[in-house]
Amino acid sequence: MLMPRQKTPDLALPTLDGAGFDLSSQQTERGTIVCFYRGLHCPICATYLKEFDKLAPKFAERGVDCVAVSSDGAERTQAMADKIENANLRFAHDLPLQTARDWGLYISTSRGKTSIGIEEPALFSEPGLFMVTPEQTLYYGSVQTMPFVRPHFSELVGALDFAIANNYPARGEYTGAV
Q: Fold for domain 31-163?
């Protein structure tokens, strides 16, 4: 389990823009939002990523970088970026499922074609949303077992404003006896 204020796993992946993404070398004022999504086959992911793309400039204004990540290959990732009419997000692809598991993501098996007629991969990770500090420690994390009921990016922008204004620390860090 990932713990707030502790180092997250490394994450280095190819990106659609060819520059690559390496969490350990991110140079941001306040951190990086890593949004793990299920893949091209998921219509809920497309809606979710469209909102993320729309609000990515708001995160950038606050010194936070954004990346969308899936285990899809480059072709399916490009299809997702095209589908949402991506303008602001960096898309990373080819997430190894062991790395997904290291991040605490749940892994699902294929059920064939989805409601939009796209074949699910044999194995893929379920969604997760993380804010990682510039020191690569966990500030915020949310993991889902299903595609439904995800954190809203607009609420995360507001929470970030509160955290910045109040120097609010990451919570949930206690690991002692209870």
A: Glutaredoxin (3.40.30)
